[in-house]
Predict the 3D structure of the following.
Amino acid sequence: MNTFAELITTFFTTYLVQEQGASRHTVLAYRDAFKMLLSFAARSRTVDRLGFEDLSREVILQFLNHLEKERGNEILTRNARLAALHTFFRYVMTKKPELASPCQEVLSIPFKRTTRRTLGYLTEEETKSVLGHIDRDALRGERDYVLLALLYDTGARVQELLDLTPADFSLDRPAFVKVTGKGRKERICPLLPQTARLVKSFLAGVEENAPCFLNHCGQALSRHGVRYVLKKYLARACQEMPRLARPGISPHTMRHAKAMHLLQAGLPPVAIKDILGHAHLKSTEIYVEADLEMRRKALEQVGTHSKTRRRKNLRPDLLKWLESL
């Protein structure tokens, strides 16, 4: 095995898994980044002929540009791939100090800045409409209902929900579910009584450590499967609520909806932070900002009828008038 292949192998098998204790999802994300990079760098030859010198700063920059221009990846995805490469090159520096110079060149590649998207979420009425269009008597209808109800009630990330097993639930009062989030941090999410009854009935007979949600093949449901389920019921709900046809609604929107509804119900941001599993309160502040912006727009709409009347009462030169006080 050549040095280059050995570095990549030990990075995944020893450094990430044994030394860093990275989660399975992190390892898979890093794996995907390297699969794409190696395929890109070896376009004119086979991957097994690549050497460390083939991953120069210029090649990495070309690869990142390829992600954006040809694959159509967003800047957030581009930055995530770069973060994986940064981790690898830092690892190489500790194992091969003689390669410090090319490693530093790659590590100097900056993350791209990106504008924050407008926060999208469903109102309570919209959430009820989506859930209300699930035929629970149909094949997998009950699974779909429990899936989306839990996605909203817990405010969990999609993968966090898909990783749940019956052993993670405590359905006696007060009911809750133990969710394992980023960095393998565990948190407790309370469940509404009606959700707890729903889950208890749904999980009857499911093995304690088996996945809660399965696809039609009897395998664990994937994130793409959850997206498909949500889109199916969104399409039905759009027939009586056309505004649900707006773009950008995804399973993660249910998480945003839960956070906004908790905030609007008066729950303090620090409590919402703990429920969502945010590492820092700053991550939760986006919901406060979105709520304030929504209130500002509402106030502007309410005040439009009296703007003209108030302006008539102002002096022509307001600054001079203020100076005369």
